[in-house]
Amino acid sequence: MITHQKPEHIAAALRAARGLLGWSQPELAVRAGVSTPTVARIETAAIQPKFETIGRLMRAIEDGGVYINWTAPGVFSINANLAQKP
What we know:
The protein is of the alpha+beta class. It contains four helices and two strands. It is globular and about 30 Å long.
């Protein structure tokens, strides 16, 4: 359902997930294999991110133990299992 989301909704979800993990934008960028400016532009809804880029960011976040669940356009919940991660 991520493909039906507006940039501002993707931005809000990424900021929330990154905040739960305690990661900086540069840390998320390194873990996802994208540039820090790309993360910053996505998190400010300055760009419509490519599907591949969102996939990389979501995989990094999920590897950290945080899961974003999209239930409808503009509606998401976040589940975290941070105890299992170092």
